[in-house]
Amino acid sequence: MIEAYPSTPVRTFKVLGAGGGTFSNTGNTDETIVKTVTMPANSMGPNGVLKISSIWSNNNSVGTKTHRIRLGGISGTILFTVGSTSNISYNDPERTIANAGATNSQVGRNSGTAGAGGSASAVLTAAVDTTAAVDIVFTVQLSDGADNGALRAYSVEVCYG
Fold first, then answer.
1. Residue 99: domain span
2. Is residue 27 part of a domain?
3. Which of 18, 58, 72, 104 could bond to 155 as cystine, CB 3.0-4.6 Å?
4. Which residues of 3-42 are buried (b: 16+ CB within 10 A; e: fewer)?
């Protein structure tokens, strides 16, 4: 028996940006953008999904190094944040954010570092207008300018829905 194709189109993810290397911040204590990936206007649709993966590193010292991913630029919604003094690497294998039936309403996993499974934190919500181009920024903030923090690899994918 030959199966028919589904009546609705199969959705696939499109890579918006990916790379490896060292995108770093040293010498200042401001939250600093180390990488920007722009999601084109209308690329998610009302039920689309955004997937972001990242690998981070920093030096081992008493100063706090904070790594973040934001949706909507430097002042946008924090999708991921981790601050550390002694851990020297982090892997956030997949951060998933979805439009919740509207192009200006998102839901996702809470912004902490917890992996798969349950969480005591509420679902992350945002109100970013995805009918316009949206910047996804990876940032590093240091409590001591002598420290360093870096984005070592990243991937950003979108699926229209």
1. 14-114+122-159
2. yes
3. 18
4. eeeeeeeeeeeeebeeeeeebbbeeeeebbbbbebebeee
Map tokens 């839901």 to a residue. 107
Round to whole Å and give the CA distance between 60 and 86.
Answer: 5
What span, in angstroms and rounded, lies between the C-alpha atoms of 83 and 134? 25
Q: What span, in angstroms and rounded, lies between the C-alpha atoms of 137 and 79?
A: 10
The pLDDT value recorded for residue 84 is: 85
Is 8 part of any domain? no
Is-contact 46 102, C-beta < 8 A? yes
pLDDT tens readout for residues 101-128: 999 999 998 666 545 555 666 788 999 9
Distances (CA, A) of 159 to 13, 37, 64, 65, 103: 4, 15, 35, 32, 13
